[in-house]
């Protein structure tokens, strides 16, 4: 495989400028050539900071650039599908931030656009290709904790800024869409199945109308996954995988550091003091670099992406089922 994929970036979102783009600059098959903002000066500053050649004052200008092969879309949630479709229509492959859409039905329109274009689209679930999660699935498949029966997860941060897009209901804000999507996708990834029922409780911020605390149970054929996520709690994250013969814990499951190893704790449960536990270290890596490199390879090789859009639609259906359950007061089928 030779060559590089030439990338254009829609917007100067913090996750793009601080995490994803610096990582992609180090990927062998990625070349960052352009970035756009509705404010040309913001685009110019970001381009200067990141060493990107071209800065555009509108997203449309960037999509008209014939020298761009693929687009990274980190725009607010409600702009994911519209601008991803426009990128496909202009002949660009698309790596789009999560959540892929505001609903499964909206995601279906993106799938239709992908089919018309013959191009690649992927939701940017970097955790699905991080080596610590691949190792976790290997351990489960090898029966190291017996049969997986329960997944328990927490993910929280504190953000009560009314101007932040995560707190704007009309933009698709709220904890379930922003971070609850992670334990849902990972539960599906590890159980290797789809949930049959979803039950949820949501507490909404009276000022914003967005969910600031969500607790969700997903019922799978082999067991259950339960998690709580919040946009207004102490920053914290952890995942426990409980099997019939052991337990596997992921210490930093979502925001894995790039400068030090991640750790998995494998415990056979022989005592409550951890006498049967062992630490498995996964070498340090940048999950955003891996994500960008794998997408670029898929473009160059004309091969499938790591997380196809069909999978993203199933994830959206589970998120929708959680919202429906919170409203109806009963478990709902996706």
Note the beta-strand portion. Answer: 25-35%
- Uncertain parts: none
Give the helix level as a range of percent. 25-40%
Note the main sheet: 8 strands, mixed
**What is the radius of gyration computed over CA atoms, rounded to a whole number of angstroms?**
20 Å
Mean pLDDT: 97
Write a structural description:
The protein has helices at 14-25, 40-50, 59-63, 80-89, 104-117, 131-141, 175-191, 287-301, 309-328; strands at 5-10, 30-36, 54-56, 70-73, 93-96, 121-123, 148-158, 197-204, 211-220, 223-230, 232-243, 247-250, 262-267, 277-282. The model has no long low-confidence stretch (mean pLDDT 97). Helix 7 (175-191) crosses helix 9 (309-328). The strands form two sheets. The chain has an eight-stranded mixed beta sheet, covered by helices on one side. The chain contains nine helices and 14 strands. The chain is an alpha/beta fold.
Question: Can you summarize this structure?
Answer:
This protein is an alpha/beta fold and 334 residues long.
Chain-wise SSE layout:
Layout: E1 5-10, H1 14-25, E2 30-36, H2 40-50, E3 54-56, H3 59-63, E4 70-73, H4 80-89, E5 93-96, H5 104-117, E6 121-123, H6 131-141, E7 148-158, H7 175-191, E8 197-204, E9 211-220, E10 223-230, E11 232-243, E12 247-250, E13 262-267, E14 277-282, H8 287-301, H9 309-328
Parallel strand pairs: 1-2, 1-4, 2-3, 4-5, 5-6, 7-10
Antiparallel strand pairs: 7-11, 8-9, 9-10, 11-12, 12-13, 13-14
Helix pairs in contact: 1-8, 4-5, 5-9, 7-9
